[in-house]
Structure formats: C-alpha cells, structure tokens
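ping. complex inputs:
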Amino acid sequence: MSEGLAFYAIFFAAIFTNNILLTNYLGMCSFLAVSREVDTSMGLGWAVVFVMTATSALNWLAYHYILVPFDLTYLRFVVFIVIIAAFVQIVEMIIERVSDKLYIALGIFLPLITVNCAILGVSLFMVIREYTFINSIFFGLGSGIGWMVAIIAMAGIRQKMARSRVPRALVGAGIALIIAGIMALAFMGFSGMIKIT
Amino acid sequence: MSPLAQILIGVGAISAITTLLAIIMVIADATIGNYGSVQIRINKEKDITVEGGRTLLSALMDEKIFIPSACGGRGSCGLCKVKVTSEIGEHLPTELPWLSDDERKENVRLSCQLKIKKDAAIQIPEELFNVKEFECEVKSIVDLTHDIKEITLRLKEPAQMKYKAGQFVQFEVPEYELTSEPVYRAYSISSQPSRTDEIELEIRLVPSGICTTYVFEHLKVGDTVTINGPYGHFYLQDTDARIIFVAGGSGNAPIKSILHDMLEKDIQREAVYFFGARSKCDLFLIDEMREMEKKLPNFKYVPTLSQPQPEDNWEGDVGRVTDAIERNIDSGENTEAYLCGSPGMIESVVDVLKKKGIPEDKIYYDKFA
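pong. complex structure:
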C-alpha cells in the first residue's frame, strides 16, 4: 500500500492530515499535563521528535531483522515497548552526563515520554502500513513534528486563556480536552490533501 | 512447526531481547550513570553521604529527613522546596512553574526534580531537620478535669526528641470504628524539652471527635502509639519584652511547657498568664502554677472564670479571658503575647491585644483548624 508514497508525502501527511495527536488522539497524557507554557511544551516537543525518529528506526530494524524472520510478529507490542524504554533511559543518562544545558532543554522530558503511547503508536502504524526503512524514519520525524505543533498550539491557547473566565467545572483538563477537540476539527480541514492509511 | 516449538521460540526471543537490553542498561548505569558518592551539607551542621545521581528528595528520605511531598516525587505538587546554597546549575523547566521570582533568585529548588551529581550544601527549615516518626508507649493517663486528660508517652524508637518548648506533634490514630484509615491530629507538647525521653500531651474530649474519642475510650496504659514531629513556630522569642500568655482548656499545654523551660533556663522575664475557664471544675494544675509563681518572682498566674458556680467560692477574676486582659494590662508597650486555644478565642484576644497597642507581629499562636 505504501509503494506509491514518497517519503516527503508521508512526512507531510504525518504532520497535517494524519497528525498522531489530533487524528488518532495518541499521547494525550503528556499533551494535557505539559501544555501550560509554550517554552516547556517546546522542550517536550523536541524530545518527542527525537525519540520518535530514533525509535521508529530501531523498531523497524528489530521488526524486520528479528521478529519477521522468526515469525514472531505477534510479539511486536512487547518488543517495541521494551526497546523504547531502554532507548529513552540510555539517552537520558548520556545527556545528563554530557551536558547540563541539553539536559535542561531536552533530557528532563525524556522520562515523561518513555510510556507515551504516541511513540508506540508510530512504531505500530509503521509496521501495519508496511513502510520501508527510509519512509519509517520520515514517518517518525513527521509524527513527532506534528505532535510538537499540536502541543505548542495548545500551550499558546492555554497561556492566552489564563485570564479568561472558564466555567468552574471545566477548569484544567476539561477545557483542555474541548480545545483539543476543536483543534482536531480544524485539522480535519487538511484531510484529503494526502492520504496515507 | 509444532505449537511447543513456537512457544519456546517466542519465550526465547523475548528473553533474549530483554536480557540483552537489561545488560546494556546495567552497563550504562555502572558507567554513564555512576557519579560515585557525594556529600550533602545540611544547614551548615550535618553532613550526609549519598549515592550520586539520585534526586535530592529520595536521598534525604533515605537519611530519614522528611521533606513534605504529596505527589511522590513527580513534580506535580510543588511542596518539596529546598534552598540550595551551593552552585548546582540552572533550574529545570519542571521546577519553574512552582517557584516564585524570589524563590528562583534565592535558588530554591524542587528536591524531587533536582539530581545530586556533586557535593552540595542545602538549607532546610530547622523543624524539618528534626521531624521524625516516633514509636511510643503510653506511660500514664491522668484526668486533669472531667474532659481533659494528660497523656504521658515514653519514646521508644527513636528514644529521644529534640524540640523547643511550645511546639506540637501529630498523633496517629490507627483505624478503629470511627475511621477506616489512620488519621493525624496535632497536639502541643506540655512537657519541657529537658525531659527528652518522654512527652506529655493534654487532650480535651471533643464530642465524637475521631482522635479524642480514641484517646478517651480506647487508649490504655502500655499501648503503643505513633507520633511525628516536632512542628510549629510557637516558642518563646529571644527578647527581654514582657510576656502575656493566654490560653483556655487544653491550650494550657504549650504554655506549661514554655514556663517549665523558662524555669530551667532561669529566664526571669516579666510574665502574666491569663487562663480562661467556665467554672472551677474546668481549672487544672493550679497548685503547679502557684508553685511556679514562687519560683519565678516576675510571673503571675491569672485564672478567670466566665460562669463561676455558687459552690466554687471563687474569689479570683470573673469574666471572659478578654475581660481579664482588659482589666489587668495597661499598655502593650514592649510586650509579646503567646496564645493557644480555640480559633474564636484567639480572634477575640488578638483584637483586645491590638487595642492595647501590641503590634500584630508580636502576637504568636499556632493555627489549629
């Protein structure tokens, strides 16, 4: 199915038409929890971009060179999660050791996204849609950027909203979910541009 | 392929992958993540050695120094603030939402987010430094009045408590018919700090109160109870101002502690103690207070009854405690006040004292809700 799709088409589709957060609603927990300030969400966004890209590559290799040859594709859930967790942990340790600046900008968010379902979602979509290695990397990169765009937009709105009078019952996660829903509607305007299911 | 072989291959593959990753993690932890042991200097007086690379909160907790934290170290409650006095790097983005500009400037950090990678010096409030959990044995239960009991607890583990006269502890009520989970209630210590191996509490019966019912109906001599503390800023300030103590009911406890402490330290400041009660049967430890007046020549005890009964033959002050203050205090110049009692009493006493010219920052009390 993915034969005809060029990597750039997948890349843009992952950002706009198939935004992992707004069309699949994956990665909601950190999206809601860390979207209070634009700066912080930017940091988390970059961390997601990095981890998604790297783990989609790693998981692609593990899938095609370990799971497929041994006919163990049903184990992909477990294997992907374990690989993501180990990768994130090690990257965090390295960043922490090497650079305080980078740790403040990026490393601090890594533990938050070890169990981010968007990361696992990207790896699963990529094998379900049978992407090639290159396409998977761009799918991961695009999805990460798409997630970052969504959380930064959300943080911007929530910062602006700090002075608005939100009905008491909706303060916090309630209003955030409504905003996310409206943003998802807006992103539906992109659908039809490119199709990648 | 037989089903058995399939299962074996599946199990084998998962085990192999996880083992490989685990080995990589262990190696990484021992090399990249190994910061050796580091020293933390607390309040310039105590040094502790902890394993580097951990969060400050968990390192302190292992050393039995309890920093309040409600979320368990996830950076979502903002309670575990600690001031770091040595150079330790910039604030992390996860800390910033919880810190005011002043706190950022003073290098206050969230201890659950801050990892200790090199030697550091921190400053924590003195009372947190000393807060511990104590296992105690009930040594005696004495009726002070018809509704106030004096409970003496012998400290077993740890065997000593360091505190200032006037501070309070939290009493842990285990689950029993009125509560399905342990609850904590604060009580002032009525004994003086020199009695390090035991503490004394004065507990007044609150009808159907969870803790007081437990103490009045279930607690027996020899029982084991758990307390934690000490807490609070209610203690004698180191000045030479005149002192006004005001208490009602079991509010006597911290004042009694402070008075005994003054006696032992030979603090001969001018002091007057207004104690409010309804009738004579609500008064207690009068002999002890009269004895105190003899030993501390500048100390005066003024009990006052709001509804003396005919059989009381009461010749002392009559009226509410605010009336007694009104009558006995001329001016609030160079005076400090220490209050302990119900919120309503404290409120009205503060009003009277302010009228007498005592500035609000010289009126001390612990707010028990």
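The mean pLDDT of chain B is 88.
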